[in-house]
Design brief:
The complex is a heterodimer. By secondary structure, chain A is mainly alpha-helical. Chain A has helices spanning 2-29, 34-39, 45-55, 61-73, 87-122, 127-141, 144-158, 171-205, 208-215, 220-257, 263-272, 276-304, 306-312. Chain A has a domain at 95-312: MetI-like fold, CATH 1.10.3720. The relative contact order of chain A is 0.14. The model of chain A has no long low-confidence stretch (mean pLDDT 83). Chain B has 12 helices and no strands. The chains are: A mainly alpha, B mainly alpha.
């Protein structure tokens, strides 16, 4: 198990390094002067000259890539052209809003999706199961940006129940401002998780060890909810890991619609100003978060899977 | 697995039928957009800006007086064109790379799988926000981005299905008869794995429609004079205090399209390949 964890983490770092290098190459391929592409046309000649020297833009590509990786590895993502401060600082200031949003959306997806899926699996092919099936497919296929805009139109503009703009001040106000964006980001995943839990639960309920548990006379509820549900949740965790990466993107829509000062809104504003160091830095941070999430999910998945444990012992 | 049985099953599934009808209507409206449009979608009439629906403008007008109904029709063309080309290109290149990974030497397989993992590690929307403007945006950049980030998915599916088939009895038999690896793969394995992959691909069409609209909403996708549902949503969002009609006109076709293609894809999968259903 330990070797698996270490290997998985090493792979994560390798993938992140390659992704960083690939992003650098991609930007160099962009039409025009690479320094302008990396720094944006608003960068002063001084910043551009410093950048050229630091990465040695006249030197061979592999040297440039290594220099860039070293800079990124030391936490140097460049200078935010608007504030003239390190990109890392700007991102750190906005990240908590995005992390809170994705966290709330994950809670919503798991908190509603798992019980709904389990209930559907137990009452397989009943009316609840069928209705949930249609509802989950519909929820998955409605674009989050539309949910965000329509949600704002209905709950904020029309009913006036929830705030439309910003992140709020203080804990309860923060929470109120979080509701609509988290709904927009997470609701599709409720349907996705429900379907997934239902499918894996149905599979697990037919497995031998569950039948054994029943034949030993363990109470049906205990078998269903303690043993079967636990095994059925494992694949869900792996999917939620991928979900974090996907939600980072959908969070951008919710942040823009609700003017919530997270990473997505920050990038959206930076694009208009052609503040490229900030947008590229944000891509690297988001990629790192996504790689970390999939790595943790893979490890958790292996740790939770009873079959994995059996194989080891 | 037979075609006619599959088709009959599809027609008997109410959600599948619903999806089929919606998808057909969308395709027809996109094909016949020039006939159905009441105005030139690019014609500006500032005097008639931000109007509510009327006999002259069925879905009202935008902030520079362009007819929303006509723009929605042409936006459907863009959505379908992007989604279909993205699907075809990703399946083709992803399938090819997956095949090479499965059949090629060990080191090449490792290298390809690592590069699939690397490309998959980017959050697509975030990447689009940063890379789109650097490359100047537009449909081609958008399509390139969608295809590049989807290739790893199909490559992985193709790779694992080919590897799974490689140990099947019929492959052993063909090998014993002295048939070459590549010939077995192309003539015998490929026809067996391509069906499920095409069904998976059909289920990705709504995801591509959604991605196109989302990225265009962010202003880094489709550019004027072309039109997109995402652009209409973006305009509508900017003028949401003046009129709700633009976000309604941009959002509803988007919902109908993704719903229609999703239900159709699900029904196709259930009808033609029940084995995929269990994977949830």
């Amino acid at each position: 198990m330990l070797t698996f964890i270490l290997r998985r983490i090493a792979l994560g770092f390798l993938v992140l390094t390659l992704a960083t290098a690939l992003l650098y190459i991609l930007v160099q391929l962009a039409p025009g002067d690479p320094a302008s592409a990396m720094l944006g046309p608003r960068a002063s000649p001084k910043i551009k000259a410093e950048f050229r020297e630091k990465l040695g833009l006249d030197r061979p590509m592999p040297v440039q890539i290594v220099n860039y990786l070293i800079a990124v590895g030391q936490g140097d993502l460049g200078t935010d052209l608007k504030t003239k401060r390190p990109v890392v600082e700007t991102i750190a200031a906005h990240a908590p809003h995005t992390i809170a949003l994705v966290g709330a959306a994950l809670l919503l997806a798991a908190g509603l999706g798992i019980p709904l899926g389990a209930a559907a699996a137990v009452r397989r092919n009943g009316w609840f199961d069928r209705a949930l099936g249609v509802a989950s497919v519909s929820l998955i296929s409605i674009p989050p940006v539309v949910i965000a805009i329509y949600g704002m139109l209905f709950f904020s503009a029309h009913l006036g129940w929830l705030p439309a703009i910003g992140a709020g001040e203080g804990f309860w106000d923060n929470l109120r401002h979080l509701l609509l964006p988290a709904f927009a980001v997470g609701i599709g995943w409720v349907g996705y998780i429900a379907r997934l839990v239902r499918a894996s639960m149905i599979e697990v309920l037919g497995a031998n060890y569950i039948r054994n548990a029943r034949s030993f006379g363990l109470p049906s509820r205990m078998v269903t909810y303690r043993y079967a549900l636990r095994a059925a949740i494992a694949p869900t965790i792996a999917v939620l890991g991928v979900g974090v990466g996907y939600m980072l993107g959908t969070a951008a829509f919710a942040e823009i619609v609700f003017a919530r000062p997270g990473i997505g809104k920050m990038m959206y504003d930076a694009v208009t100003l052609r503040n490229y160091p900030l947008t590229l830095g944000a891509v690297l941070c988001a990629t790192a978060l996504m790689v970390a999430a999939t790595t943790v999910a893979d490890i958790l998945n292996a740790a939770l899977d009873p079959r994995f444990k059996d194989g080891r012992e | 697995m037979s075609g006619t049985i599959g088709l009959r099953m599809l027609l008997r599934d109410p959600m599948g039928l619903f999806g089929l009808v919606l998808a057909t209507l969308l395709i027809l409206s996109a094909v016949f957009a020039p006939l159905l449009a009441s105005h030139d979608p690019a014609a500006i009439d500032v005097a008639a800006k931000l109007q509510p629906p009327s006999a002259a403008h069925w879905l009202g007008t935008d902030e520079i007086g362009r007819d929303t109904w006509s723009r929605v029709l042409y936006g459907g063309r863009v959505a379908l064109a992007v989604a279909l080309s993205a699907t075809v290109l990703s399946v083709f290149f992803g399938g090819l790379l997956g095949l090479i990974a499965a059949l090629g030497p060990r080191w090449l397989d490792h290298l390809l799988v690592l590069s699939f993992d690397t490309v998959r590690s980017y959050p697509v929307i975030i990447l689009a926000l940063a890379i789109g403007p650097i490359f100047g945006g537009g449909i081609v950049v958008l399509l390139g981005l969608l295809v590049a980030t989807s290739i790893p998915y199909y490559a992985r599916v193709m790779r694992s299905s080919v590897i799974a088939q490689a140990s099947a009895d019929y492959v052993e038999a063909l090998r014993a008869m002295g048939m070459g690896r590549i010939r077995i793969a192309l003539r015998h394995i490929l026809p067996n794995v391509i069906g499920p992959i095409l069904i998976l691909a059909s289920m990705d069409i709504p995801a591509f429609i959604m991605a196109e609209a989302g990225i265009s909403f962010l202003g880094v996708g489709v550019k004027a004079p072309a039109t997109s549902w995402g652009m209409i949503l973006d305009q509508g969002f900017r003028y949401i205090g003046h009129t709700p009609w633009l976000v309604i006109a941009g959002g509803l076709p988007l919902i109908l399209a993704t719903l229609g293609f999703t239900f159709l894809g699900e029904a196709l999968r259930d009808a033609f390949d029940p084995r995929l259903k269990r994977r949830g």
